[in-house]
Predict the structure of KHG/KDPG aldolase.
Amino acid sequence: MLNELLKRPVIPVIVIDDANDAVPLAEALLAGGMDVIEVTCRTASAAEALARIKKALPEMLLGAGTVVTPDQAKMCIDTGISFGLAPGLNPDTVKYFQDRNTLFIPGVMTPSEIEQGLSFGLKMLKFFPAGAAGGVNMLKNLGGPYASQGVQFCPTGGLSLDNMNDYLSLPIVSAIGGSWLATKQQIADKQWGVITQQVKDALAKATEVVG
C-alpha cells in the first residue's frame, strides 16, 4: 500500500458532516483524476462515510485521518480502509495498525518524533501542522539528518494550490495533503463540479515538479 500511495502526490483531506455526501464527493474526486481520499474522523458521520465509499467505490484508495482514539482505530480497521493517518504519533495506535498489516502514517513535528517513527520502522510520516511548524524551511532542515534514512513526508496544514509545489519539489516530500480540494462549505453546497475542477488544477500543478 505504501508503494501505491507514493504514486499519488496529492491527497485530499476531507471533513464530511453528512454521510449522504460521501459517495458523490468521492465520485467528484475520481472525475478529476484523483483516486485517493482521506476522510477525517472529526465528525459523527465519518464511520458511515468511510463505509459508503468503501462499498460504492472499491477502486478508491480509502484513508481515514485524525485517528486519535482506540475506538476510531478499530472502526477504521473494521471498515477495511487502505491506510490511516493521525496528527500525532501514538505508539499504541501505530502498533494496532501494524499488527493488522494496515499502513499508518502518524504526524510528527520534531526530530525526536521522527526518530520515534523510525524506531517503529515507519518510512512515511505526516508533517503537521506544516505551515505553523516552519513549512518548507523546516522540512529542508529535517532533510539533512533524515533523508539518508529513507524517510518521506506528507505535509498537511496550511497548504494550497499556490504553495503545494514548494513542498513537492523537496526530495523528502512524497505527497501533500490538502483540505482546499473540497472544503466543508463546498461539500455542504454540493459543488461537485467545482471540486472536480480543483482536483484537476492540483494534479496539473503537481506535474510541474513530479512529472
Remarks:
- The CA atoms of residues 181 and 198 lie 6 Å apart.
